[in-house]
């Protein structure tokens, strides 16, 4: 295969910021439609259109879920192997170049601040106690189906040297559960280098994503959302996070990093399409 010429100076888009400390997708994200809010009344029409005419996801029964998606105890990849194990929704266990990482670890039964709301269809195939050593956690944004504070607390307690890499503005949300020296907060296009126990380094890049953030009625878009690219000595892993189709930014990922060895892309929850 012909070697691709990389553009190491490729600049990623930056989020817009307001005087109130809120983030927003840049205007270059042409397909973005703002979710409904009190400050964006016209966006409610998009929600109603989706609910009435486009949404086609009937609830699955427990029996059908048992048949179509049975729970199996995971067999995690060997430490020397590039591989991934799906835990559920956006939670992946990934081995890459001698380190182990988790994306958006969620183990709770409900993806909501309220009980009995947004209950998960299938339980995790393992407990946090069953996990092998975890070196890194990347969190894409603060929605409850991607940020489980109880899981963060349990992971931090079990693995004292675990590192958490989060988008701008999100560190304060997890600071009560994680030692500050183990939290790294990045804006799009920024990166950090983290040494391994073998003396090598891997690099974590924050990649633009088309999404939004909110955990309560008071903190809409107060923290950023992001994809993540982990660049090891031999391999590259790209986790897009929750994102719409950022055509120009995806092109930049290819231009900047070349061939990606392993990707995690949200192709299951594709509605609304923005």
TrEMBL record:
Biological source species: Meloidogyne hapla (Root-knot nematode worm)
Domain of life assignment: Eukaryota
Organism ancestry: Eukaryota, Metazoa, Ecdysozoa, Nematoda, Chromadorea
PANTHER family according to UniProt: N-ACYL-PHOSPHATIDYLETHANOLAMINE-HYDROLYZING PHOSPHOLIPASE D (PTHR15032)
InterPro entries: Metallo-B-lactamas, RibonucZ/Hydroxyglut_hydro
Domain Metallo-beta-lactamase: from-to ranges: 101-273
GO CC, one annotated term: cytoplasm
Record protein name field: Lactamase_B domain-containing protein
């Amino acid at each position: 295969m012909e070697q691709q010429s990389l553009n190491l100076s490729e600049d990623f888009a930056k989020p817009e910021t307001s005087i109130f400390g809120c983030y927003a997708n840049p205007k270059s994200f042409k397909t973005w439609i703002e979710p409904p809010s009190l400050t964006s009344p016209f966006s409610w029409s998009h929600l109603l259109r989706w609910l009435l005419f486009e949404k086609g996801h009937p609830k699955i029964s427990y029996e059908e879920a048992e048949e179509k998606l049975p729970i199996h105890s995971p067999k995690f990849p060997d430490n020397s192997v590039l591989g991934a194990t799906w835990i559920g929704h956006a939670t992946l266990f990934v081995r890459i170049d001698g380190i182990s990482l988790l994306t958006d670890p969620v183990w709770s039964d409900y993806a909501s601040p309220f009980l009995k709301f947004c209950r998960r269809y299938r339980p995790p195939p393992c407990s946090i106690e069953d996990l092998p050593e975890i070196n890194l956690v990347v969190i894409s944004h603060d929605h409850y189906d991607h940020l489980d504070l109880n899981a963060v607390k349990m992971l931090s307690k079990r693995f004292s040297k675990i590192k958490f890499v989060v988008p701008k503005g999100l560190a304060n949300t997890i600071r009560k559960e994680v030692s500050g020296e183990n939290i790294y907060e990045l804006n799009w296009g920024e990166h950090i280098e983290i040494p391994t126990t073998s003396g090598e380094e891997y690099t974590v890049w924050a990649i633009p994503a088309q999404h939004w953030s909110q955990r309560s009625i008071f903190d809409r878009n107060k923290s950023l959302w992001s994809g993540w690219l982990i660049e090891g000595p031999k391999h590259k892993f790209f986790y897009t996070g929750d994102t719409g189709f950022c055509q120009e930014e995806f092109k930049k990922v290819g231009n900047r990093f070349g061939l990606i060895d392993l990707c995690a892309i949200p192709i299951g929850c594709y509605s609304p399409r923005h």
